[in-house]
Amino acid sequence: MTFREAAVAWALAAHEVLAESATGYGYFVTVNELADRVQEMSGIRTDAPTRTWMDAILRKVARRCHNSAEPPLTALCVKQNHKVSESYKYVLELAHLPIPTDLEVHAAYARWQCYAAYGADIPNDGGIPPLIPRNGGVPRVVTASAVAPVKPDPEARKAVCANCFTELPANGVCYYC
Fold first, then answer.
1. Which of 141, 61, 65 is closest to 109 using CA atoms?
2. Which long-range contacts (CB under 8 A, 24 or more apart) does 163-167 make?
3. Mean pLDDT, residues 119-140 taken together
4. Cross-strand pairs, 140
5. What is the pLDDT of residue 21?
6. How is the chain split into domains, by residue range?
7. What is the pLDDT of residues 73-125, one digit of tens each?
8. Most buried of 14, 27, 30, 173, CB within 10 angstroms?
9. C-alpha span between 174 and 177 (Å, rounded)
């Protein structure tokens, strides 16, 4: 079996695992756990180190989510230190968004979108997107002090696509979606 064939099967399984994770508020999966689960689900195994092939799988899942206007499920996959991997930046590249200073805060909001889209029990007040705890403790939350409020000039605000958040042209039709 070629890597391409295996990658397709693994990406389908990864999407399923991540979508399942999104049904529980605060749930996430580590890269190694995801690698084990996708190999088990697909029945296709590799002896190659996870770091050599998992980014390709996460990119496939990110493209699928982006193309079908799903929230970025890859935000639910974190490294052993509970931080998103460098491959998470691909989500932003697909949407033509700048890379934020704090990628973890962006990923926390993306996880919240996943939880909302997949029916997780979100707190009644809407909650504040949780940051994944790095030491196994209580989840951190994004506070107002962590994200400096920016008040844009209302007249300078441009219309953006509701799916990919890119600035719309004058005719209001998104050419990316």
1. 141
2. 163/69, 164/66, 164/69, 164/94, 164/95, 164/96, 165/95, 165/97, 166/95, 166/96
3. 67
4. 131
5. 92
6. 3-141
7. 999 999 999 899 888 999 999 999 999 988 999 999 999 999 999 998 888 77
8. 14
9. 6
